[in-house]
Amino acid sequence: MKKGISLFFGFDIEIGTRIKMIKDAGFDCVITNADKRLNKQNGSISKQMKLLKKYNLQPSSLHMRYIQDDLPYFWQKGRKGDKIEKNIKKDLKIAKKYGFKCVVMHCAGEYSLIGEQRFYHILSLCQKLDIPIAVENLLSSKLFVEIFKNIKNRYLKFCYDSGHDNCDNDDKNYFESFGEKLITLHLHDNDGKKDQHTLNKAGTIDWKMIAKNIKKYSPEINLDYEIKCLAGCDNMTANDVLCEVKKQADKLEEMIKNQM
């Protein structure tokens, strides 16, 4: 199985050096974001892709650009909602250009017919480009469930975020309900109380459960870790973190293979 990590994993390191470190640690692919506001942190998306190619790393999933507080406007009439739709379409075109497997989308707010129409506009472009949009489970399942209940399209997929699931108070079994739609992963841990994007040793996730469901629903999926070192990385260097994440990815792969 291919193993990936977020391009920014908690350390402010020059992008070329950081990508080489990711390669040297044994990773195969990278998840990233094309938001120009992150250019100072990660460089432009074109620069990122040139460096990934240089070090023989593959792009995995591309995260949509967004402002958290603006997300509910997607479901409301007006320019702010239109802008979110426009930006997602930009990201889909970028994903197609550079060979990403999907664009990951955050959704928040109250479900509406306006938002549904915007979704179908996006999915029309997905079909044209042959690039899926993957909705990520956040800290509440209500809107997520409504999206998949009301919108039927083969380009609508699921991004499973292990850390968000661990903090979700809805007790929703995402794999059981949406496993057939699974296309990409955001793997990280936390203490079950808040979103920390940390390492397994500091968290409470049932990784055997995750291994069992990956084996059942998508045994060839990239094991992509979205690490930000918000907790549990005390006194660890960037190389320490990369080595630890790779070690945990290898362990998860072994757990997946051993599932009956």
State the gist of this model:
This protein has 260 residues and is α/β, with parallel strands linked by helices. It is 43% helix and 14% strand. The model has no long low-confidence stretch (mean pLDDT 95).
Structural class determined from secondary elements: alpha/beta
How would you characterize the largest beta sheet? 8 strands, parallel
Number of strands: 8
Uncertain parts: none
Mean pLDDT: 95
Describe this structure in words.
This protein is α/β, with parallel strands linked by helices and 260 residues long. The protein contains ten helices and eight strands. It has helices at 15-24, 39-42, 45-54, 79-98, 113-129, 142-150, 162-167, 174-178, 207-217, 238-257, and strands spanning 3-6, 29-33, 58-63, 102-105, 133-136, 156-161, 182-186, 223-225. The longest helix is centred in the middle third of the chain and has 20 residues, at 79-98. The two termini are 17 Å apart. The mean pLDDT is 95.
Topology:
Blueprint: E1 3-6, H1 15-24, E2 29-33, H2 39-42, H3 45-54, E3 58-63, H4 79-98, E4 102-105, H5 113-129, E5 133-136, H6 142-150, E6 156-161, H7 162-167, H8 174-178, E7 182-186, H9 207-217, E8 223-225, H10 238-257
Parallel strand pairs: 1-2, 1-8, 2-3, 3-4, 4-5, 5-6, 6-7
Structural features:
single chain; 260 residues; alpha/beta; eight-stranded parallel β-sheet
